[in-house]
From TrEMBL:
Name of a matching Pfam family: DNA_ligase_A_C
Lineage: Bacteria, Pseudomonadati, Pseudomonadota, Alphaproteobacteria, Hyphomicrobiales
One term of GO molecular function: DNA ligase (ATP) activity
InterPro entries linked: ATP-dep_DNA_ligase, DNA_ligase_ATP-dep_C, DNA_ligase_ATP-dep_cent, LigD_ligase_dom, NA-bd_OB-fold
UniProt domain ATP-dependent DNA ligase family profile: residue ranges: 136-251
Reaction(s) catalysed by this chain's protein: ATP + (deoxyribonucleotide)n-3'-hydroxyl + 5'-phospho-(deoxyribonucleotide)m = (deoxyribonucleotide)n+m + AMP + diphosphate
Protein known as: DNA ligase (ATP)
Length: 346
């Protein structure tokens, strides 16, 4: 309704009144603000064996870090929310500061926080160390956010729009120079050669997305991930102590989920540094139990409650169902809630 300036009395009162409200033209669409969600469950990429082909697929680099949603709320209030719904604004101060410089009144950006190595590739272990390890409280001021989607902007919920439309708005929003928030570039190419190139230069893999799909929460298949080196989350069952290995850990014994229980999937003995192995052993010592959580025989093993999710890179599976050429990358935060690898029931 149009506001009116009212005078108590006098002939000027009539002239200062705003004109009477006119009936809205029924052919004109009424513009209303969409309520800003407190949180949006992320769209997750489904693992695929090969890159899809066709003009409806767009391709991006697969970043190796922590999935974040950056909320810019009314009054220039920024919240950085993890995949598990935890507020980590204080842990990414540079990203939060850059968000305020974007010029949006309200917005929700979807992206991945990473720390880059000397070659420009994302390094999950370096991000872990910057945050102080699992359970640490340090802030990663050097972390970058590679934004790849825009879910809300200046009062409008964008999730029903196609990826093409959302990306166009995101590109415009990030048109300036920002030190900590960058656009995750979309590559106009074919999937197979792009994956081959990504693997040749040492990247983890690529993401394929349907150009005309809306933003759907969950793992519905609109987004696919194709990896050069497989990397998944497994639970630690125990470790073999060593007097000569880094941090005193010879190898970790690992498990995946299988239905409502766990199944042994082999071990990992590489990828540690003195610092990561020492910190890991302290956490494992606090979880020590007298016998393994699942039936398994391994002499000299220190068994632990399977509560720590470890990110493991590997080259495939052996014929007896164990990880092949496994390497330890770091522990997953509880706030990150990455899925523990699920074995087929067959």
């Amino acid at each position: 309704m149009c506001a009116r300036r009212v005078l108590r009395s006098g002939p000027a009162a009539e002239t200062l009144k705003s004109p009477p409200n006119r009936r809205r033209d029924s052919r004109q669409r009424e513009l209303l603000l969409d309520p800003m969600p407190d949180r949006v469950e992320p769209c997750l990429a489904l693992l695929a064996d090969k890159a899809p082909e066709g003009s409806d697929w767009a391709y991006e680099i697969k970043w190796d870090g922590y999935r974040l949603a950056v909320h810019i709320g009314p009054g220039r209030k920024v919240r950085i929310i993890t995949r598990g719904g935890h507020d980590w604004t204080s842990r990414f101060p540079t990203i939060a500061a850059d968000a305020l410089d974007l010029g949006a009144e309200t917005a929700i950006l979807d992206g991945e926080a990473v720390v880059l190595d000397a070659t420009g590739a994302s390094d999950f272990g370096a991000l872990q160390q910057a945050l102080g390890g699992r359970g640490g409280k340090q802030s990663a001021a050097g972390a970058l956010l590679y934004a790849f989607d825009l879910l809300y902007l200046d009062g409008r919920d964008l999730r029903s729009l196609s990826l093409i439309e959302r990306r166009d708005l995101l590109t415009r929003l990030l048109a300036g120079t920002h030190s900590a928030i960058r656009l995750s570039e979309e590559f106009n190419t074919e999937g197979a050669p792009f994956l081959q190139l990504a693997c040749q230069i040492g990247l983890e893999g690529i993401i394929a997305k349907r150009r005309h799909a809306p933003y759907r929460s969950g793992r519905g298949g609109d987004w696919l991930k194709i990896k050069c080196i497989q990397s998944d989350t497994f639970l630690i069952l125990g470790y073999e102590p060593s007097a000569v290995a880094l941090g005193g850990i010879g190898r970790l014994l690992l498990a995946a989920r299988k239905g409502d229980s766990l199944a042994y999937v082999g071990s990992v003995g590489t990828g540690f540094t003195v610092k990561t192995a020492t910190e890991l052993r302290k956490q494992l010592t606090a979880l020590k139990i007298n016998k393994p959580a699942i039936p398994i025989k391994a002499k000299g093993t220190v068994w632990v409650t399977p509560a720590l999710p470890a990110e493991i890179a590997f080259r495939g599976w052996t014929n007896d169902g164990n990880l092949r050429h496994a390497s330890y990358k770091g522990l997953r935060e509880g706030a990150d809630t990455a899925d523990v690898f699920e074995l087929d029931m067959a």
